[in-house]
Specification:
The protein has 275 residues and is of the alpha/beta class. 32% of the residues lie in helices and 25% in strands. The strands form 2 sheets. Strands 3-2-1-4-5-9-8 form a 7-stranded mixed beta sheet, with helices on both faces. The chain is globular, with a radius of gyration of 18 Å. It starts with 21 loop residues before the first helix and ends with a strand.
């Protein structure tokens, strides 16, 4: 089936027929670049702990990948939007031995990630600078080999526009070897009355509210320097539609993390056959 033609058996997101104006998309992408440039240090300090969901994901990756490749050799794993590299620390505790590549757009976070992952057991880490919003981001990877697992945590909900998110999931899937896994997590902030009530008016970012998609929001950051960030609620219906368009099959899902214990939706997808 053509990826542009919705499969009637797959739940479709409620923004499936909307195209975000390019100027609005560019404004929201720049807002998030400014956010990380402003709060990188405080963001790192607030992300030192390993959330339960990340540790559980590391353990499930170990189970699925070891069933497929039982011999004790390091697996190639790509962490897209790696931030300060804490997934590498979770993998060192509960995941498979791996050659880990972390990719992120923010140079401050990459420097912190390299420092904090220098001496991990069973995980050999390296880091690459690239902006996912740019269509050539994957060309910055050190080689063209595919990965046993590609992981993209707490990233997709910061990219405005359904078409951009669809493109990104397709690009992520293309980096997974046949039978390998793509792991995603998306923030279910609208399921929390506490977080949903913190939304800021679009005027604060100079954006017309009529130009954004259902599920879009501006949320404040008040740890250290105040800042705004764009987020989008990707529920299971939208994640499923994006993954299906990329030729992926769901193998596992669960929710964890946050004060409520269920604020992140984790999904694991397998690349099926040759495309």
């Amino acid at each position: 089936m053509n990826s542009q033609t919705p499969d009637p058996s797959i739940p479709q997101p409620n923004n499936a027929g909307y195209a975000m104006p390019p100027a609005v998309q560019a404004r929201l992408l720049q807002l998030n670049r400014q956010f990380y440039a402003t709060v990188a240090g405080e963001f790192d300090r607030s992300r030192q702990g390993l959330p339960a969901g990340m540790l559980e994901l590391a353990a499930r990756l170990d189970t699925y990948l070891r069933d497929r490749q039982p011999q004790p050799v390091p697996l190639r794993l790509l962490d897209v939007g790696c931030g300060n590299g804490r997934l590498a620390r979770a993998l060192a505790q509960r995941g498979p031995a791996c050659d880990y590549t972390g990719l992120d757009a923010d140079p401050q976070l990459l420097a912190l990630a390299a420092e904090q992952t220098r001496a991990l057991p069973r995980v050999a880490a390296r880091f690459v600078a690239a902006d996912l919003a740019q269509p050539d981001w994957a060309q910055r990877l050190p080689d063209r080999s595919l990965y046993a697992a590609v992981v993209c945590l707490a990233v997709l909900h910061h990219f405005p526009g359904l078409a951009l998110r669809r493109r990104l999931v397709g690009e992520l899937a293309a980096l997974v070897e046949e039978g390998g896994l793509l792991a995603l997590s998306t923030w279910q902030f609208l399921s929390s009355e506490r977080l949903a009530g913190k939304q800021v008016a679009w005027a604060a970012a100079g954006v017309d509210p009529a130009a954004v998609e259902p599920g879009d929001a501006l949320l404040p950051w008040n740890q250290g320097a105040p800042a705004l960030r764009y987020v989008h609620q990707l529920d299971l219906a939208e994640v499923t539609a994006l993954a299906a368009a990329a030729g992926l099959q769901l193998v596992d899902s669960f929710r964890a993390d946050g004060k409520e214990g269920n604020l992140n939706l984790y999904t694991l997808w397998q690349r099926q056959g040759k495309r």
